[in-house]
Amino acid sequence: MDQHIKPSEYPLIALCPKTETGVTNFLARNPTYDGRGVVIAIFDSGVDPGAPGLRETTTGLPKVIERYDCSGAGDVDTSAVVTVSTDGTIKGASGKVIQVPKTWECPTGEFHVGVKPIFDLYPAKVRERMEAFRKEVNWDPDLRNALSSSSRKLNGDANNNKSSESSSLDDKYNKEDIEAQVEMLSTFDKNVARRVLEDSRFFCFDEARSTAGYFPENTELNGVAPGAQIASFSIGDGRLNTMETGTALVRAMAHVMRNSDKYHVINMSYGEHAHWSAHGRLGELMKEVVDKYGITWVASAGNHGPALSTVGTPPWVLSNTIIGVGAYVSPDMMAAEYSLREKLPGMPYTWSSRGPTLDGDLGVSVCAPGGAITSVPGFTLRNSQLMNGTSQAAPHVAGCVALMLSGALEKPFGWSPYSVKRSLQNSALFLPNKEPFAQGHGLVRLEEAFGLLESYSTALDRDVRFNISVTSAGMISGWPLKGIYIRDPPLNKAKEFVVSVDPVFFQEDSIDPEKKINFRMNLCLLSNVHWVQVPKYFDLANIQRTFNVKVDTEGLAPGVYYSRIEAFDTQNMSNGPVFNVHVTVVRPTNALIAPYFRPTVELSNVAYAPGDVHRYFVQVPKGASWASLHLRLTGGINTSRFVVHAMSLVQGFSCTTEEYYKMVSLQPLEESNLAFAVTENLTLELVIARWWAESNETATLSATLSFRSVTVNKKEVVMSAGDAYSKLVVTNSFATEEIQPNVTLKYQVQLLRPSDVKLNALPEPRDVIPNNRGIYELISTYSFTLSRATEITINCSLLSDTLYECEYESQLWMLFDSNKRYVASGDAYPSKWPTKLDKGDYILRLSIRHEKREALEKFLGSSSNNDSSSSVASWNGDSLIPGLPLLLSMKLPSNVSLDCYSSVYDVQNSNPSKKSVIGSVTMKKESNVNVFISSFINEKSLKNLPGSSTLYFQGTFTTSKDDLGKKVSTIGVKLCVPEAPPKVKSSAAKDSEKSKVEEMEEQIRDMTINWMSKLPPDDAKRIYEELSSKHNSHLPVHVARLSYLDNLPSSSNNQGAGGSKLSSSDSPVGEDEKVKEEKKFKTKEILEEIIATSDKILGMVDLSALLIYYGTKASASSILADATKIKQTMDKQRNAVVEALVKKGLALAELAKLIPAQKNSLTEQLDEILQEVNKFMEVTDSRVLELSVQHAIARGHYGRAVRFLYKQLDSDPLKWTAESDKRLIDIFKKLGWNMSVWNRETIAAHRYPKDFRPF
After folding, report:
1. Of 405, 422, 387, the residue nearest 202 (C-alpha)
2. Backbone phi, psi, residue 257, to 5°
3. If you compute the radius of gyration of the chain from its CA atoms, what whole number of angstroms results?
4. Rounded Cα gap, residues 207 and 201, in angstroms
5. SS3 for 469?
6. What's the pLDDT tens digit per position in 868-918?
7. pLDDT digits (tens, 9 = 90+) for 177-206
8. Which of 104, 296, 572, 1111 is the 20 to 30 Å CA partner of 366?
9. Residues forming beta bridges with residue 956, ordered by sequence position
10. How far apart are CA 268 and CA 1184, in angstroms?
């Protein structure tokens, strides 16, 4: 132990840093400005009110005053109403009996009830522990006992049978039963059945603790504003791994707007990457929260750095009203939180997102400490945990704002969200030698910011923000920019820009007109760089005005340049800039192009200290499609970590559209090769940054960036089977390349159209914005069937990949199985929600919302009830208007390859040799190769598809032979394949000896047989009797009748097969539940007719001849002419025999339940029937399994019954119903498997809900 360190000297204050931004000094001088009187609304995944530091404020008030779940994930359907019984109990929605406390007052005696799986509300860590605990208590002991008991029986039975040469049928079945018990118990032990659970991250109360935590016993651990109160709004949806949704955000904003007199600050540490910010439903509402209701909004910039233009949304929204915060790490934090041996200079974190935004604004307003060792929820069983991210930096700034507003309330003086943001920016400490893109205006300085806020309280522009828009001649974007951002060529001449400045007043609709009239500012415009030229003066009143800016980049060396045009009030220069126009210029270099070599950029022996970020901007050469990056650590004594971030910005798309990110660890002299896609003529930013948390020694890195050129003349290949082929031209512009064209289809894509659409007006107050602006919801229902297990992706292409920028405020889909059991959810980003599904039927429900009803009505059919006076409109699927279509992508069981040829002749060749298919081809510089992709798919590849229909198959086309190139140089392929036509019977199969009249009579007979299954009982029986009298020897007549009898509905009021009602004496007598249970069985008359019809079928078939046919391998030549016809006849007879035997056995088993006296002979009868069936088919065949189950139950062999039942249910998931579970539970009880009884009964209420989950 170091004798120079005392226990009290540990820098606890650095665990929740406050000195870096001056919070400690500010509170020392102003102890009552600690946030008291201020309420911070935290938009995140939730706050734990019982966590340390979140129980009370410095004045003894409750710390967390409100807790709202805005997502809907916790909603419970309580539409069911129950009445209290005489004993004071009610029956809950799960079926459990609940004792109503006598202290509850309910004059009507009626209660609304609902059910919610408690595990849905548990964080992941709690669920894991609860599952382990319940398994240990309720499952493992009984399972071990049952398994050991069955194993002993099996071993004892084996020892007893060693001496006997033969065993009886009873011995055989007994042994099978014990073996089945051991097998099923072992299977259960490996695969314990559990609920379907959604994942969830921590309740993000660590942000609340960083913002306003209060520890009276140790104030050094306090958050920034210990006196402030907190309101928690969950915008993270548990169904989506706590990702935010538009629905949750709108609900949270609407609540804050309705209660704007209560809230002062919003902290939001959520965000996505948007494609644009000029439009978007959520951005408009965020602007309204600030401009109209005066809430100061603080948002994290994101953790997507170190490349430029990676700042998220928010803060990048419609207006620049939101305070965007980057993450900073100080020397003290490095020592106390990260345990670094040596302190380094303070810096932005490597991963902190950078500006500028895609439309030129800086994006990051200020930076603040982005890490803390903070207390975490009790369920983690930890005292504290290191948290870092801009999601820590934003709460720090929100806490600073709370301190400023607390002081403003006490002094008092006025403020607006605009003056708060301006005071933070103009007082920030700019970190020397650090670029502005991560730190914004700099590190927050609280005392200076508070001083500016007070001086702004009397300023003319206190309640004014300045909306900046920039235009220029030849702009590609259709929307004005918020700043000047020059990045892509041409860059060889000066550019002129028009900057518009439009004053926007706080609460503009209700402001005193005199304030607008009297508003006038004389501004001076300053630029601190020679390459940005601006006018000197700018007079501004309450009207939009413009000025011109000239940006001359000629003569600037390659790299990135930043400046800002600052507008100062000539009467108050000390207050800092009134507004800023940010200017960012990127000057790319050109790759070195030498004859017969690939274009390259050499970066030799570049020195990297921890946290160093080196940016290289390269204009992608024409003809390039991908790039390779070779790294080599040439200097250093330890392993060093580097972040490689490559990005090109594509107009109209987010920064993630063309991006590559990789963390690379290199030992001295170690090398690494990376590859990523590029787009010709765009500017590529290549960032190589050394990880900040490294030992303080310099590492030297050499890198070579090489551009590769194998381009294709199409961005995507779309063809149909009727096209036969698609021609592509592959071009190589640089050095010699080896190509190997290949097409791989990976997905079957099915078009889903809604079967039902409903438009609802949502209830208030949760879904109503102030001033009675109601929100409407459109719910579309889709269904699909999977014939095999696969992985699916749902894509609503109209709305996909847009959230904050979307016209619609939200989209959310939920997937259910045929029992309405919830399976999965997804939202605007399809690639985030791939879902693995078993085969079966599924129902998908999609919800989209909007404030304007007409925006949703276009997705209703023309036959819908579109009366705007109605709160509900619906569509039943009959309209010609298809509603909102979805794309269902299903992963193929195995990839399908399409052949590539070098000429049309090779495609046409009826027997092409392997040489005609393109293999490896060597392409010289500036050469072309034609590739013809055949649309032919082998019929075998179309078998066993997961989906029931195909819109197209989807895959990729690759050209590169290089392993790295195959992964990054690809284009999409879509192949449309029409549905296969129904097979038509060959005319050769007709009997030429039959006359046309005979053929007609046969067709009438067959049609009548087919119609018999659709008729009511009386008519069906009459038709059967008529057919029997004419065609008694025709086997299909009796098979059809047998199927009809077997499929008679259970709830047919106990009608007989001929339609007559049974008398009351024949009907079971008892309570309603008992009657309902009895109606599930067929009547005695039906069962007896099933047995008689089965015997008739068996009597019509020569069973001996059938067995001889299947048991003999006949000479093919002797029956070649009639082989197919004979086989078809024999297969039909065999199937009829098996069906008759199975249905007879099942009827006998059911009859024994109605006539107990017949139970004595049932076992012997079923033994005989099952043995007969086994001559033609395995007892585990899906057509025989139910008989096998009944046979096992009749013999009391419940182990065999369980095995057969699971085989039956696994082969047909649609048979998993509440009835099948009840059946299993009954068998488990007879076996004494209490753990299985517990398991099935526990999940029953959630596995078979009465209705779909609400959105």
Report:
1. 387
2. -65, -45
3. 38
4. 14
5. strand
6. 444 555 544 444 446 899 999 999 999 999 999 988 888 888 665 555 688
7. 999 999 998 888 776 643 322 333 333 445
8. 572
9. 744, 972
10. 60
